[in-house]
Specification:
The protein has 9 helices and 14 strands. The relative contact order is 0.13.
Length: 271
């Protein structure tokens, strides 16, 4: 899927990097609340990726997070027939807008509702995690050097690290999530699915929990990469990951044993 990779890299260089710590007045706005931001970098990068793929891969329909924000009806098309490329042009927009370097770009190529290729790209260092269905997940550096990824073998909860976006849950569930996290070595949030999944696939953390709305632009590529690296992904109710699903807490972990334990500890979030 070099076409997707090259389109994302080019958009990162043209629209994202020039705006980092250089956003002007009026180039950042709220979508739903103070924490849900969009910048001119998001909209321009999404447009550039769409235009590039329209030329090089016209059979594929590009559907981005910002397009769905403008037209929620497009969300259903992400699991439609044929090829779709689902894009998060700037993942971790709050971080990006505040000048924090923990942000990335996500793309996943989907055929008939099933993810076939995932990309978790860091435009600052020009490196990425990528995976093609049925193959190994790889970490690739800008010069082309690559290594195959495996999830962590850590099994002691006292040494486990995980991520959960506690602020996305209702107040009562936030309290339950914080208390559940006290059983582990470190539970926090990067506010960036791209880097959370990159770290999980590389074996640096042991689990990632989603918010109550598991958007495919946040999770589909990461799930594919972690599963290829030996991890597991299911919703807390036990259902397999489905990018069409609109509600439910997704738990992605380094092993079945970790998934079982974390699912028990965070069961209150499934209510």
């Amino acid at each position: 899927m070099d076409l997707v990779l090259q389109a994302v890299r080019a958009a990162g260089k043209a629209a994202v990097l020039p705006r980092f710590r250089a956003l002007g007045v009026g180039e950042v706005s709220q979508k739903t609340d103070f924490a849900d931001l969009v910048t001119v970098a998001d909209t321009e990068a999404e447009a550039l990726i769409g235009a590039a793929l329209a030329k090089t891969w016209p059979e594929a329909r590009v559907l981005g997070e910002e397009a769905v924000a403008a037209d929620p009806g497009l969300r259903a098309a992400m699991a439609g027939p044929g090829w779709q490329v689902i894009v998060d042009p700037v993942d971790g927009t709050w971080n990006f807008a505040k000048g924090l370097s923990t942000f990335g770009m996500i793309a996943v190529a989907v055929k008939d509702g099933v993810a076939r290729y995932g990309l978790l790209y860091d435009p600052l260092l020009d490196d990425w995690v990528e995976v093609t269905a049925g193959e190994a997940a790889r970490f690739v550096q800008a010069d082309g050097r690559a290594r195959v990824l495996r999830v962590s073998g850590v099994s002691d909860p006292a040494q486990m690290c995980g991520y959960i976006p506690t602020g996305l849950f209702p107040p009562a569930q936030r309290r339950a999530a914080v208390l559940a996290g006290l059983s582990y070595g470190r539970v926090t949030s990067l506010r960036c699915s791209c880097h959370e999944y990159r770290l999980l696939a590389q074996g640096h953390v042991e689990f990632v929990l989603s918010g109550p709305q598991p958007h495919p632009w946040d999770h589909a590529a990461g799930v594919l990469a972690v599963q290829a690296a030996g991890g597991v992904a299911r919703f807390l109710d036990g259902a397999a990951y489905d990018l069409e699903r609109r509600a439910g807490v997704l738990l992605v972990a380094n092993s079945e044993a970790t998934w079982d334990r974390v699912a028990r500890d965070y069961a209150a979030l499934a209510d």
